[in-house]
Design goal:
two-stranded parallel ribbon; mainly alpha; globular; 6 strands; Protein SirB1 N-terminal domain-containing protein
Amino acid sequence: MNPRKAFFACLDRSPPALFEAALWIAAEHDPAMQPLLVLQDFTLLQQQVSLGMPMLPADELGQPLLRRMNDLGFAQDDFTPLRPAAALLDKVLQRKRGQPLALGLIALELARRLNIPMVGVNFPGHFLLRVPGADHLLDPCGGRRLYPNDCRELLQRQYGPNLKLQADQLHTAEPRSILQRLSRNLRQLHLSNDNPLAALVDAERVLELGNASAADYLARASLYQRLDCPSAERFDLEHALMLSEDPIQRLRLTERLGHLPPNSVVH
């Protein structure tokens, strides 16, 4: 099956098959990887986690689930520079090391299979989890509870003291936005590891998922520039220009467009 088509087919299900969709993203980068086999093998992890869980009501099992994952060796990947393997779900399952988002996706799938209520939160710079109705969030890297002050400290530690905590940063994330974030992560990881063609695969997926930003078009334009595709670069720069609300950025985009050769017209 074509991985991109299978990916969107997962999103079209009701409810969307978030974890399987993320596996099909990994399959785009490794033709030998078989998502359906990974799903079968995942049952063993589910059993290992389940055996160590306490006897508590389902809505109190979110933190124990994450702690159980930690007991089994799952932890944040601290390798520098970070590699794409930290976001490719099959590799994270093999290595038990990954970005918070990848660990969160594994936790969400385990929670779904074990009937534990849990949702994802696209918190800036560090994906988080929540049990609906709880007064705190959970760090997928070990299960630490984060209350509003903890979230504020996490935000300022990553982005500086001038960035204020906003209510929308704590909202439940929809499957499409989670997978778009995963695609953006992979786009950056492949680029920083000098694989622009792989980064282009992720950049295209970001745009196909919809609601793309000027920065998303600009990111793909820069990849096309690196790959010496001026017509495609122009297309994305023009879209970034239409979406941008920053006057300085608009000026720079206009100047950059002026240095590109005009699109050829075929008669």
